[in-house]
Amino acid sequence: MLEQYLFDGWASGATIVPVQVDDSTSDGSYLYGKSLLLNLEVKIHKSAREGDPTMQNIGYYIKYLPSRIDGSMPCYLLDICGPLLSVFGVINLGDEAVVCEPLVASLPLLYFDTPLLTSLARVYGNKQVVTSDVTRFTFPYKDTALIDGEEVKLTYEAAIVRYVFCARLAPSQTKVIVKFARQYGSDVHQYCANEGFAPKLLSHEVLVNNWAFVVIA
Hints:
Layout: H1 2-6, E1 20-21, E2 24-25, E3 28-32, E4 35-43, H2 53-64, E5 75-81, E6 84-93, E7 97-102, E8 107-108, H3 114-132, E9 144-147, E10 150-161, E11 164-169, E12 175-181, H4 186-194, E13 201-206, E14 212-216
Parallel strand pairs: 4-5
Antiparallel strand pairs: 1-2, 3-4, 5-6, 6-7, 6-8, 9-10, 10-11, 11-12, 12-14, 13-14
């Protein structure tokens, strides 16, 4: 039922299916390419034998992470434990840590009163919106750049090679190249640009994961 609702009307044949990683098999996973965007764990109840669905969900997400992590992989975790539905957001911070937070309070799947049923319907409605917007994962989340002291909007157009993208600045529609790198010598680039040996460096920023974000034209 969850699969039919989330992917209603999709031409791509999107589906939630069990996926095995090492010795663990999920109760249901939605993949976009090689990215895990949503994972489902179902338990009758929490117990020493059954385990904790939330911790098992997080554990599966960690196992699914690639051996070489070059970025962040956001994912939604759905727990159904007895009559309760819980929704979490999880993301890795590089290759050193994982952060998981509840996005809503746990909601009963059985009817108790109208306000709770309304809240449950809103959760399902929002899940349909966020899971249908998976094309955004084609390009990086960083879509603004600080250029000459002003924050400028970026629109990605194509990937050139790994971590290098074609983009346009708004509203001028100027074509630029966006690069992400572990390290970047901005001083050297600026010197070469001043001497006419390199393109103009428009922006250089160190992101929270210590990657360099570079915009050149």
